[in-house]
# Entry
Amino acid sequence: MINPKLIMLDLDGTLYIGNEAIPGAVTAVEQLRERRFLLRFLTNTTTKSHVELLQQLRSLGFTLAAEELISAPIGACLELQSLQRQMDRPLRIWPVVAGAIKSDFNAFEWDEVNPDFVVLGDIGERWDLALINQIFNIIHNGAELIALHKNRFWQTSDGLKADIGFFVAGLEFICNKNARIMGKPNRDFFQRVLDSVGVNASEAIMVGDDIDSDVGGAQLMGMQGCLVKTGKYRKIYFEQSGIKPNMVLSSIADVLSIFRP
Ligand SMILES: [Mg+2]
# Structure
């Protein structure tokens, strides 16, 4: 391939699993830096703040600047900043998100009564009908909805659980309005990352362990998608998938092999 300007790296399953870096990942990132590629670290995590994620990566040995890490909440902030510039006025938001990530939205004015945007994330057991009706009425009265993701369900130690996609889809239906969805594989999210660096999709590559979110999402944007066979990679799922990665690596440790010297 023609060497890209920007490399987007997935976190969980690509750079680390749990509390351990994938063998060779720290060195691989350093090698990419020596080759002067622009790097952005992307994650859909919505339960850890930007500061916590940054600390986690650094404690595993990765070196990165704060602006290089773009989580789904930070993607939402970039989206809001972009809308703020278009509208030429400060936006009022109501973040309905986990306590841990509320600080990610400190740059905006908060308003639970008459916000311009409701930002929806994971709030665990806090859902109830009163909250649903409060959000419904606010959106019905003109506010827009930004969802940090729209996942259907997730795996917990107690088995599968309904995820916020249930509430996002429900609110979209009863308000007759589409939410802006952040996080991979959504276009708005990838576009905000590209814009923040000033690079075109054709000059960027995404490297990750999720064939749908990382590889498929990138390819839909006109970026290249590189699959790593770590983390959630499963051979059977890969073989049955209609998505064909531009490159496949056994691990991030080999990432330099896909670029021209
Ligand atoms: Mg991953």
